[in-house]
Specification:
Length: 101
C-alpha cells in the first residue's frame, strides 16, 4: 500500500489532471477530489516494526538509537501533515483500540 502522503499529493493531482481532459461525470470528479482513508493499523504496524528493530539491534549498533529518534521525529511530522491535510477525517477512537486480549 502507498503512504497517504503519496496518494494525497502525487496520485490525486495526477488523477484530477487526467480526468479534466475528457468527459467526466460529477460522480467521478467527486471520487477524484475525495481524500484517501487514514489507515491507523498500517501506520501503527510500521512504527512498531521500526521501533522493535531499533531496540533489537541497538546493543550491537549504537547508531540505531539515532536512526530510531530520526524515524520517530520524521514520522510524527509526516503523519501530522497527512492527517490534517492529506486524508479523510478518521473515526473517533478510544483507548480500547490498543488493548490486546
Amino acid at each position: 500500500t502507498m503512504p497517504p502522503l503519496v496518494i494525497s499529493y502525487i496520485v490525486t493531482p495526477l488523477q484530477i489532471r487526467y480526468m479534466a481532459r475528457g468527459k467526466v461525470t460529477q460522480e467521478t470528479m467527486n471520487r477524484a477530489y475525495q481524500l484517501p482513508d487514514w489507515n491507523l493499523a498500517l501506520r501503527l504496524a510500521q512504527s512498531m516494526n521500526v521501533i522493535f528493530c531499533v531496540v533489537m539491534f541497538s546493543s550491537g549498533m549504537p547508531i540505531m538509537y539515532t536512526v530510531g529518534w530520526l524515524y520517530c521525529f520524521v514520522a510524527y511530522w509526516l503523519d501530522k501533515i497527512s492527517l490534517l491535510r492529506g486524508s479523510k477525517r478518521p473515526p473517533n477512537y478510544s483507548q480500547e483500540v490498543m488493548v490486546i486480549c
